[in-house]
Task: inverse folding
């Protein structure tokens, strides 16, 4: 993916103010920077959720300034919110999000296994889970989506030690199989050891 | 650069709209003269007939305004280049249309009280008009939802086209529901020559007023958009400063 | 995935959410029944009630529709699932049809309850000759309400002041359904000595409405939810 001088606007405010970033396949790039620097917006832009106001953005071969919907199928985004249905069970949620990309029952089970959502949690409603368990469920949904570009916003937050290890291993596997991974995180030590490269985001730009 | 354009005074008028504005004033004065003084009382409706000189033109123009909104919405969506000018004319026309339709409803009710002895009857024309009024108030509310100019334009254009689907359905359902309605007095030729002429004067005056209002309003909207865009340049510079700090 | 597969997936998900949460069953159904009782208080006349029963059924259905639509999209926006659906890249026409299908199923149950309430509380009866037109009306009106409800619910879902915006947008549009369904139901029930055959033209209007907004909604939904 290749972003060149990208400006994106939310409610009249330029959340991205000329961001330039090139990431190759198989890379795990850590985005770091203070609150409000534009990390979340950068991830949302790559997912096709923000319009490109100025500049050019090419993600997985799709030109986002022309069409930002066709790229979405190939992107997995874990934002601040988990995108889970609170009234459904963990298994229901993973199955639903897996099904949107046509994942088989085996792949769904494997994804839940990967994030340590053992049989004990599978049939518990998401509303009853702790914040960390919800994060794990959201990650399992992401794994089930088999995306070509992984966009994760503070994925380590709220996870316990085993959860973090499982997450790191999952992201390394994804990158090894050719996916591109972007992680925004404040936990520099943790994410730094994971990342192949670290870039700093500030004032809506990448440095 | 930005400070230059800010300090420069930019009225929404041009020589053309100033002349047009003068013509509107002249037309309204002419209408007042004919409508209130020169035209005679109706045999049945007495002096109440004078309300029609405002009621009928505003009704026609409100319908015209909503047609313009629909056409401009198609114009915006038609080409992939997506010219915002279409969107602004659509929005300006809808705003003027809502105001005119409000005047239509109020004058219509007053006229109804005088001629029929009641403010409201559930005939299809009246009811459709009331629904149009509410529908376009909703359209204006959606225009205000925010987002980028093109987001606003696309959302409201699609909504305007949905209104085009809705209006005939409302009209015909009400028509079937209450098949009896008042005949149009103009079509029946109950108005005499001078009355017809006065109505014509009203139509001309209000058409000019409509064009004048839409021209100004869409220019004001264009300036609003420009201010937002210029604000973006300033905000971008400010945002980039954050990185240096 | 094809539009129909997405629609089935989304509809099954929405119905499962209702199955597990029972919000519609435990809150919206009692609300609708309560509205029917309130009408009786307001009108305070048994003959008048029998005469206007068809209108009251559909009026209560319309108010309940507002509540159902709010609920259907609150489920999507509570934890950013609507954003996730957009990122999932599924066709918006599929989301539209799926949500409309689930809404129609819930609405169908609710309307059946309202109709039974009208029979029990308002002394109305369904003559044998009116069953056909009543069923046809029930299906067409439900489809129409579900389509417009989903369409405008999706538009209002992401917006500020969505609770107040939705009724302003939705009520003018559903007016033809209220008129058509009420007249057709009057014909089916023989209210005011109407004949069942008088209901079929109204059914035609309802079917046209459902077709127009079903097709229009499938086309327009993407532009309305996606900024």
Result:
């Amino acid at each position: 993916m290749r972003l060149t001088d990208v400006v994106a606007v939310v409610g009249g405010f330029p959340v991205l103010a000329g961001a330039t970033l090139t990431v190759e396949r198989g890379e795990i790039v850590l985005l770091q920077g203070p609150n409000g620097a534009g990390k979340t917006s950068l991830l949302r832009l790559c997912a096709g959720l923000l319009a490109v106001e100025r500049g050019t953005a090419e993600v997985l071969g799709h030109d986002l300034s022309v069409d930002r919907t066709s790229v979405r199928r190939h992107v997995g985004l874990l934002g601040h919110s988990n995108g889970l249905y609170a009234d459904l069970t963990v298994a229901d949620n993973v199955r639903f999000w897996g099904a949107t990309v046509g994942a088989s029952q085996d792949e769904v089970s494997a994804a839940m296994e990967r994030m340590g959502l053992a049989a004990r949690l599978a049939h518990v409603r998401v509303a009853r889970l702790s914040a960390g368990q919800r994060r794990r469920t959201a990650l399992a949904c992401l794994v089930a989506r088999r995306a070509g570009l992984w966009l994760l916003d503070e994925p380590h937050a709220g996870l316990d030690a085993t959860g973090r290890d499982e997450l790191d291993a999952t992201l390394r596997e994804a990158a090894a199989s050719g996916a591109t991974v972007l992680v925004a995180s404040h936990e520099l030590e943790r994410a730094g050891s994971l990342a192949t490269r670290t870039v700093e985001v500030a004032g809506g730009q990448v440095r | 650069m930005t400070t230059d354009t800010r300090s420069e005074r930019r009225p929404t008028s041009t020589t053309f709209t100033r002349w047009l504005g003068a013509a509107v004033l002249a037309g309204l004065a002419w209408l007042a003269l004919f409508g209130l003084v020169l035209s005679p009382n109706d045999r049945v409706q007495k002096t109440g007939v004078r309300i029609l000189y405002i009621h009928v033109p505003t009704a026609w123009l409100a319908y015209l305004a909503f047609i313009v909104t629909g056409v401009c919405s198609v114009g915006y969506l038609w080409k992939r280049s997506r010219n915002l000018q279409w969107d602004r004319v659509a929005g300006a026309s809808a705003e003027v249309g809502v105001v005119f339709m409000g005047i239509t409803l109020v004058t219509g009710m007053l006229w109804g009280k005088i001629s029929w002895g009641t403010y409201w009857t559930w005939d299809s024309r009246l009811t459709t008009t009331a629904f149009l009024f509410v529908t376009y108030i909703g359209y204006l509310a959606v225009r205000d939802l925010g987002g980028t100019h093109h987001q606003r334009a696309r959302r409201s254009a699609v909504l305007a086209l949905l209104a085009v689907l809705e209006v005939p359905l409302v009209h015909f359902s009400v028509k079937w529901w209450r098949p009896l309605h008042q005949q149009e007095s103009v079509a029946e030729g109950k108005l005499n020559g001078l009355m017809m002429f006065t109505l014509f004067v009203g139509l001309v005056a209000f058409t000019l007023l409509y064009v004048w209002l839409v021209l100004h309003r869409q220019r004001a909207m264009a300036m609003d958009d420009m201010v937002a865009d210029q604000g973006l340049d300033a905000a971008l510079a400010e945002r980039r400063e954050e990185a240096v700090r | 995935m094809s539009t129909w597969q997405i629609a089935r997936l989304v509809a099954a998900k929405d119905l499962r959410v209702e199955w597990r949460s029972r919000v519609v069953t435990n809150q919206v159904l009692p609300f609708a029944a309560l509205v029917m009782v309130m009408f009786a208080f307001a009108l305070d006349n048994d003959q008048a009630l029998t005469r206007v029963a068809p209108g009251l059924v559909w009026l209560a259905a319309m108010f309940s529709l507002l509540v159902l639509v709010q609920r259907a999209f609150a489920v999507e926006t509570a934890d950013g699932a609507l954003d996730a659906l957009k990122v999932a890249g599924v066709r918006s026409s599929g989301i539209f049809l799926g949500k409309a299908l689930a809404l129609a199923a819930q609405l169908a149950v609710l309307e059946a309850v309202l109709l039974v309430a009208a029979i029990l509380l308002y002394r109305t009866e369904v003559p044998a000759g009116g069953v056909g037109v009543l069923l046809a009306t029930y299906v067409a009106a439900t489809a129409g309400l579900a389509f417009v409800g989903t369409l405008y619910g999706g538009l209002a879902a992401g917006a500020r002041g969505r609770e107040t915006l939705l009724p302003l947008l939705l009520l003018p549009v559903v007016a033809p359904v209220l008129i058509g369904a009420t007249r057709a139901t009057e014909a089916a029930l023989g209210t005011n000595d109407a004949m069942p055959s008088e209901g079929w033209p109204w059914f035609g209007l309802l079917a046209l409405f459902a077709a127009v907004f079903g097709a229009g909604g499938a086309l327009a939904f993407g532009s309305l939810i996606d900024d």
Summary: The helical segments of chain A are 39-46, 90-99, 105-114, 119-122, 131-144, 161-176, 188-194. The interface with chain C takes residues 47-49, 51, 69-77, 79-89, 92, 96-97, 99-102, 125, 145 of chain A (CB under 8 Å). The radius of gyration of chain A is 17 Å. The first strand of chain A starts at residue 2 and ends at 10.
